[in-house]
Design goal:
The complex is a heterodimer of chains A (320) and B (314). In chain A, 24% of the residues lie in helices and 28% in strands. Chain A is of the alpha+beta class and 320 residues long. In chain A, strand 10 (189-197) and strand 11 (204-206) form a beta hairpin. Chain B is mainly alpha-helical and 314 residues long. Chain B folds into 2 domains: 58-136, no CATH class; 154-312, no CATH class. A two-stranded antiparallel ribbon of chain B has the order 1-2. Chain B is elongated. The chains are: A alpha+beta (320), B mainly alpha (314). Strand 8 (137-143) of chain A pairs parallel with strand 3 (81-83) of chain B, so a sheet runs across the interface. Chain A: Residues 286-320 are annotated as: Disordered.
Chain lengths: 320, 314
């Protein structure tokens, strides 16, 4: 393999120095760990998924690509595809409704497989992810200690290790270790990050891609077989969307109900307050007066107007 | 299907829910219901269909078995994997904040905390892995003359660099603009003060000149007084002037015509103002006050005829 490389170094002006450095990599060891991963997808994926797949292929030199598979085919067909391509691991991306992305990771002929819902995808091309690494360099894998605590996580850990770690002395790999993949468990999901190692004292920059995996099921066979584990916290995206819609609808309905109740209260006939039983306690009826019927109109009263002096004059008089 | 039963009168215990009907796929036709009733599986009253709680598979044994079969015992050099907790958080230690995810849950919604957690986990991995890698003589730093293709192209890295630079520029510009705005405000204040001072000086000068013209003062010190005043009063009278502030007339006018405050109700009588007779001058009220009492002008100028007489006399 004599490949011509292009100069790329972060921070330096791009000088295109073409040197063939094919075999000058130190003592070439034998490539014994024959892992090959098949990365492909179904039809109906969007641009982000496509870029994510490409990024994973870039990051993993032991990966192979394949054409899109029709979703109508049964899943066990994938096993045959893997056999044809001579791959023993598979990462299959399945897109549904052009919205939800599911990822299958499996060990091809007999081994276990797992299905995840993928969320929060950020690809290599995002300008906020500023790190860079050699294409095909081997990654360090970093796992959360929570992976050792549960049997299903332990199985997933083993699956990740075998799939994501680049075999030593792989022809397309670079012998340097300059980036690290982290798998962390938070909120019942697996968070994936990829960092570039700048200094050996631990300063890092994120390269990308990054995504979040929500485990659905683990199967004993590859793309089939008895279910070994089902995630109790998993809610399918459809159910999630439905719940949001129901919540919104419930809110509106509640508001309407409250309004109607208020209207009803206003317009309903107010009941008369019952007569108070104790109201008669203090009634002391007066004696009956003889009815005095006047036959003639009473004389008009003559009102004499008092000649009152004005206030000021009154005060003056008072003082005098 | 599990048939639970609730009668109208009383509610049965959940023990009855355990009664699985044998016909799993029964469609609950009338005949079948009658049979079930006859068999004693159903009680009279309202019978409600209750869903069996979903049982999720967690085949621990199966998982362990699978893992044992599937596991490849590769040397560490092939796998390069490490499991560790995140490195100590220096920042939170410095601030002496008790970081909540010390050993417990990581809050996935707090973005910054979460990303720092991942970062520190990666850091811890590196710190642990470096000696191991050195032992296996795997390099982490590539030599200066090693040129190879990178995951992101040169063009892309340039774009990133441009974006970072532009962000920095924007921040700098906004900082500059803020500072300028502050300065301008301050400058405006200074300007107003200077103008006011000049106006006051002019006023003082004019009044001094007028006094001299009218013959009230025959000292011409006000011409030179400026220089003296500048030295002495610049420290002294500034304080005095500021104490007086706006004159009483100004204050009254501000109160009456100035902005702010409710004025429409100020001319209405309140209980206190109605009962308040302190402003009552009896003499003036009874018309006995006369013109300002007797103290208006002591030096009243005599009339024309009197003046003529005086003139002719002298």
């Amino acid at each position: 393999l004599c490949l011509c490389f292009i100069v790329v170094e972060k921070g330096s002006p791009s000088s295109k120095n073409q040197k063939c450095k094919g075999k000058e990599r130190g003592p070439p060891g034998k490539w014994t760990n024959k892992e090959r991963v098949l990365i492909f997808s179904s039809r109906g994926i969007n641009f982000r998924t496509r870029h994510l797949m490409q990024d994973l292929r870039t990051m993993m030199p032991h990966a192979k690509a394949d054409t899109k598979m029709d979703r109508k085919d049964k899943l066990f067909v994938i096993n045959e595809v893997c056999e044809i391509k001579n791959c023993n691991k598979c990462l299959y991306f399945e897109a549904k409704k052009k919205q939800d992305l599911y990822m299958w990771i499996s060990n091809s002929p007999h081994g276990p497989s797992a299905k995840f819902l993928v969320q929060n995808i950020h690809t290599l091309a995002e300008l906020k992810l500023t790190g860079n690494c050699l294409k095909g360099s081997r990654p360090l894998l970093s796992f959360d200690p929570k992976f050792d605590k549960e049997p299903h996580y332990a199985l997933l850990k083993e699956l990740f290790i075998q799939t994501f770690s680049t075999p030593r002395y792989h022809p397309k790999s670079q012998p340097f270790v300059d980036h690290v993949f982290t798998f962390t468990i938070a909120d019942n999901r697996i968070w994936f990050r990829n960092y570039q190692i700048i200094e050996e004292d631990g300063s890092l920059v994120e390269i990308g891609p990054r995504f979040v995996l929500n485990l659905m099921k683990i199967f004993q066979g590859s793309f089939g077989g008895p279910t070994l584990y089902e995630n109790p916290d998993f809610r399918s995206p459809n159910m999630h969307r439905r719940e949001m819609r129901l919540a919104a609808a419930a809110k509106v309905r509640e508001k309407q109900m409250v309004k109607e109740m208020q209207k009803g209260k206003k317009t309903s006939a107010k009941e008369d307050l019952e007569s108070d039983v104790t109201a008669d306690v203090f009634l002391t009826p007066a004696e009956e007066k003889p009815a005095d019927i006047q036959t003639e109109a009473p004389e008009p009263k003559v009102v004499k107007k008092k000649q009152k002096a004005f206030k000021r004059q009154r005060m003056q008089m008072a003082r005098r | 299907m599990v048939i639970g039963s609730k009668t109208m009168a009383f509610v049965e215990e959940e023990a009855l829910l355990g009664q699985d009907s044998e016909e799993e796929n029964s469609e609950l036709s009338d005949d079948e219901l009658q049979e079930a009733f006859a068999a004693g599986l159903l009680k009279p009253g309202m019978n409600v269909l209750v869903d069996k709680p979903k049982k999720l598979v967690n085949n621990v044994e199966g998982l362990k078995q699978c893992l044992a079969d599937f596991r490849k015992d590769l040397p560490w050099v092939e796998r390069l994997d490490l499991t560790n907790l995140p490195a100590a958080n220096i920042i939170s230690q410095a601030e002496e904040k008790a970081s909540a995810p010390a050993a417990g849950e990581l809050d996935a919604d707090d973005d910054f905390q979460r990303e720092m957690f991942f970062y520190r986990q990666a850091q811890a991995t590196i710190l642990e892995a470096m000696p191991l890698l050195n032992r296996h003589s795997i390099a982490t730093k590539r030599p200066e003359d090693y040129f190879a293709e990178m995951a992101k192209s040169d063009q892309h890295m340039q774009k990133i660099r441009k974006k970072l630079i532009s962000k920095q520029m924007i921040m700098e510009r906004s900082e500059k603009a803020k500072k300028l705005r502050e300065q301008r405000k301050f400058g405006k204040k200074v300007q107003i003060e200077v103008i006011q001072k000049r106006q006051q000086e002019k006023k003082a000068m004019m009044s001094a000149v007028k006094k001299y013209q009218k013959g009230m003062t025959d000292k011409l010190e006000f011409l030179e007084g400026d220089q003296k005043m500048n030295k002495e009063s610049s420290q002294g009278s500034k304080k005095a002037v500021n104490k007086k502030g706006p004159s009483a007339k100004r204050k009254y006018k501000d109160q009456k015509f100035g902005f702010g405050g409710k004025k429409s109700g100020k001319k209405w009588n309140t209980k206190e103002s109605y009962n308040d007779v302190s402003g009552f001058r009896a003499k003036i009220a009874h018309g006995k006050g006369g013109k300002k009492g007797k103290g208006g002008k002591q030096n009243k100028r005599p009339g024309k005829s009197v003046r003529k007489k005086m003139k002719n006399r002298s």
